Amino acid sequence: METSAVSPVSTADKRRAEVIVEAAGRLFLAPGAAPVSMDELARALGMSKKTIYRHFPDKRSLLTAVLDRRFAAVEETLAAAAESAEGQPFDVRVQRFLIAAGTELGRIGAAQLSTGRGGDAMLRQYVERRVDTVIYRRVDELFRDGHRQGLLQTPPELLGEITRGALERLLTSRLPHELDWSAADLLRATVDTVLHGAVRTRAESEAEPLGAVIPAARDDDTEVSP
User: Fold this and answer.
1) In terms of C-beta density within 10 A (0-12 exposed, 13-18 middle, 19 or more buried), how is residue 153 classed?
2) pTM score, whole prediction
C-alpha cells in the first residue's frame, strides 16, 4: 500500500504557528510590558492578522498555546531540579525545587496574569490551575514526604500554605532591589525560615553567624520578579 508524503503546506503551516506562538510569548509575557494587541503582534511578525487568526481564532486561544508551551518547559525544569537533588538532605531538595519554581514562574509572568494583567478571568483561572498542578501540588508532596519521614513537626498543609504565600509575594515584591539581594537569595532565606525557624538560640548564633545562613554568593542572577 502506497503512503502519501507529508504535505509541504501542512509543514509550513505548523512552522508558522510555532513562530506565532514564540513571538506572542515574547510580547505578551514580557516583564513589565503593557498589554500587546493582536495588531501589534501582527506588525512584529510582519504578517496580517488574518494569517494569525487562521491558526488561532482569537487572542485567548493564542495565549493558551503560549502558556501550554511555557508550562511544559517549567515541568521539564522542575523535573531536572528534583533529579539533581535526589539523595540530598531534605532541606536541600525543597530549596532547589522552590528556587527553580520561583525562577520559572517569573519567566512565565504567571503572577501578573493571575492578578489581572491578562484581563481575562478564564485565562487567570487557567494559569492558577496550571500553577497549582505543576508547582504547589509537588511542593505539598515534598512536605508530606518530609512529614512521613519524621523530618517535619509542623503539619505539611500549613507549611504548604506558608510557602505558597511567600513565593507568590516574592514574585511581585521589591525586596530584591531594596535589600540588594538576588531573588534566589530571598528564596533560600524563605526556605531556611520555613524549615528551621527564624529565631535561634544564643549558642546557635555564636556557632554560626547569620551571614552563613544566607548565601553571600550571587550564583543565580536571574530575577524571580517578572
Assistant:
1) exposed
2) 0.69
